[in-house]
Specification:
By secondary structure, this protein is of the alpha+beta class. The protein has two domains: 61 residues, no CATH class; 104 residues, Lipocalin. It is 37% helix and 23% strand. Strands 1, 4, 5, 6, 7 and 8 form a six-stranded antiparallel sheet that branches. Strands 2-3 form a two-stranded antiparallel sheet. Strand 6 and strand 7 form a beta hairpin. The longest helix is centred in the first third of the chain and has 28 residues. Keywords: Membrane, Transmembrane, Transmembrane helix.
Length: 167
């Protein structure tokens, strides 16, 4: 977070420097408000860009074995433009590359599900999946997959669909 603040200040100073350089080259007389307004506008533009660019940056850094399950857009009253263009501030993903398959049933496995949120540490929980039976276990205590308590969420469940499509 501190580096984003530093980058925002550098964007403001850089924009002001560019304005002053252009004014000097073309011998423009700038009004007194031009430099502070440029700094503020550049810092604001950087902050908005940085918020919108967070999800694509994080998504592109994930390994190929990770599947995004859900990435809802959100809006906020203090950012009125988000009502027209929602921002993704959190998402759920499953790491199929780290899946541990059952020895007795090949379509049953345990895989880590990641809950990623901006400004928060990543939470990762193991979930058990039974693709043949269309079931999953949200709380997998460890041990044997055969001993887990299964839920049957239905065909519209995004997490089960993502797990079974690549698992």
């Amino acid at each position: 977070m501190i580096w984003e603040l530093v980058a925002m200040v550098i964007a403001g100073v850089g924009a002001a420097g560019a304005l002053l350089l252009v004014a000097r080259i073309f011998r423009w007389k700038l009004p007194k408000w031009a430099v502070p307004a440029t700094v503020g506008l550049a810092m604001f533009a950087f902050a908005v860009w940085n918020e919108y660019d967070w999800y694509p940056r994080v998504r592109d850094e994930l390994p190929e074995s990770v599947r995004i399950v859900s990435a809802p857009g959100s809006s906020a009253a203090y950012q009125p433009w988000t009502y027209a263009f929602p921002i993704v501030r959190r998402f759920v993903a499953i790491d199929l590359g780290a899946a541990i398959h059952s020895e007795t049933a090949p379509r049953q496995f345990v895989a880590p599900v990641m809950f990623v949120e901006r400004w928060a540490p990543i939470r990762q929980l193991p979930f058990a999946f039974d693709c043949e039976g269309g079931r999953r276990s949200d709380v997998f205590p460890g041990g044997r997959i055969e001993d887990t308590e299964w839920l049957t969420p239905g065909p519209e469940d995004d997490l089960l669909a993502a797990a079974c499509a690549g698992g």
